């Protein structure tokens, strides 16, 4: 079953399983969490009701949006790698070292003359440059020595964290009066990013970096789906041989993808640093790994990742009420883990169902005369000898797009 929207044809038979999959996965996660609650002699419905009521409070909505902005930036950084067929586990380390270097530079005494707005831009730029350069190490190891990016980025996480701790405690850190830990120094007040009073019923404001997170999502959507670079990136990730045949430099694409992923990762800790703590502390961390879960949950789609980030923010916030009710907050961790696992399995099943249905339609259509309605409805191109390539589409594009329909669904 297909429906035409403008000039594009939407395969409802393939789209429906993809829409049902995340809903089914969340239902499964809730069911397994309910079983865990029952084993603990707790009422699942009551626990979920308390989580919902607490999450809907105005102060909670502000915190959910604040957490979601951080999770979303981390998810976009991970998704860039996924689109390229890379698994950048190093977002955690890239975010730490990027924010630390930016905070240390911006709070240095020789930077006192820099105007506040310029200092904010400088912090963002420095964090992105440092994060990108840290990711470049893994890219070079992969392209020049064949080292898996999974291993290298995982090790760079540990190295980056230790480097930051060493520099913070022994060299560039300062300890404010009455403080128990060292920080990079408090930024001048004119360098604090203003909040957004978008939630009624509370005096708290949403971190202003939310605007940059939204802009990042739009740029990601346009860059990946509407540009030649995005096509080369996806083609290299889905079908490397087709990309190379079309003249794409696969090694160059790996380096560029990791640079962009690391640069975005460098901004992960900036919402809190610019809008809340106004300094870098060792308390920053943990968001990079959450970004992997959010990217998987959202299937690397900008809207899907936004919804996943809000869901993760809601769960992280609402687990606070469970402690007050005497319910183990680990229930939320169980729900998060099962949700990611269920989503991966559900999407793979949905992809297989979609491919099977498409193969069945193609089988029926190919038995029909060329140019007939069943053949066109099945999406089989009829232009050219043998019907191998649609008019105006090169063989390379056709091959790359065929990789798109298979590999992305299985990710």
UniProtKB/TrEMBL annotation:
This protein's UniProt keywords: Cell membrane, Membrane, Transmembrane, Transmembrane helix
Biased composition annotated in UniProt, kind: Low complexity: 390-400
Region listing for Disordered, in residue ranges: 382-411
Protein's membrane topology: Multi-pass membrane protein
InterPro entries to which the protein is assigned, alphabetical: ABC_transp_permease
Transmembrane intervals: 20-39, 71-90, 97-114, 120-141, 150-168, 206-224, 254-274, 280-297, 304-321, 333-351
Pfam family, one: BPD_transp_2
Subcellular location: Cell membrane
Designated name of the protein: ABC transporter permease
UniProt organism field: Dactylosporangium fulvum
Source species taxonomy: Bacteria, Bacillati, Actinomycetota, Actinomycetes, Micromonosporales
């Amino acid at each position: 079953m297909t429906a035409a929207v403008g000039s594009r044809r939407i395969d409802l038979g393939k789209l429906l399983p993809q829409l049902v999959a995340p809903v089914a996965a969340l239902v499964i996660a809730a069911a397994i969490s309910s079983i865990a609650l029952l084993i603990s002699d707790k009422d699942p419905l009551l626990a979920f009701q308390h989580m919902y009521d607490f999450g809907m409070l105005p102060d909670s909505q502000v915190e959910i949006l604040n957490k979601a902005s951080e999770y979303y930036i981390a998810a976009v950084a991970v998704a860039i790698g996924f689109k390229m067929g890379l698994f950048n586990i190093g977002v955690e380390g890239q975010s730490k070292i990027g924010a630390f270097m930016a905070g240390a530079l911006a709070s240095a005494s020789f930077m006192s003359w820099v105007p506040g707005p310029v200092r904010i831009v400088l912090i963002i730029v420095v964090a992105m440059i440092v994060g990108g350069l840290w990711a470049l190490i893994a890219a070079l190891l992969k392209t020049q020595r064949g080292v898996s990016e999974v291993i290298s980025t995982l090790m760079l996480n540990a190295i980056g964290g230790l480097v930051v701790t060493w520099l913070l405690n022994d060299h560039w850190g300062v300890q404010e009066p009455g403080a128990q830990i060292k920080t990079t120094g408090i930024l001048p007040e004119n360098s604090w990013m203003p909040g957004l009073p978008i939630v009624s019923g509370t005096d708290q404001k949403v971190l202003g970096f939310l605007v940059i997170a939204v802009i990042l999502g739009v740029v990601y959507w346009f860059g990946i789906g509407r540009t030649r670079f995005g096509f080369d990136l996806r083609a290299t990730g889905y079908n490397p041989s087709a990309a190379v045949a079309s003249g794409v430099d696969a090694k160059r694409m790996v380096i560029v993808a990791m640079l962009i992923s690391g640069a975005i990762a460098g901004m992960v800790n900036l919402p809190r640093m610019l809008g809340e703590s106004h300094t870098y502390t060792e308390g920053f961390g943990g968001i990079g790994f959450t970004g992997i879960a959010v990217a998987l949950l959202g299937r690397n789609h900008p809207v899907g990742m936004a919804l996943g980030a809000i869901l993760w923010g809601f769960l992280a916030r609402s687990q606070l009420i469970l402690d007050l009710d005497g319910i183990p907050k680990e229930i939320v961790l169980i729900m998060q883990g099962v949700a990611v696992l269920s989503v991966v399995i559900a999407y793979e099943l949905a992809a297989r169902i979609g491919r099977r249905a498409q193969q069945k339609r193609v089988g029926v259509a190919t038995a029909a005369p060329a140019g007939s309605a069943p053949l066109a409805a099945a999406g089989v191109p009829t232009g050219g000898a043998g019907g191998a390539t649609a008019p105006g589409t090169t063989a390379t594009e056709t091959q790359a797009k065929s990789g798109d329909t298979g590999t992305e669904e299985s990710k």
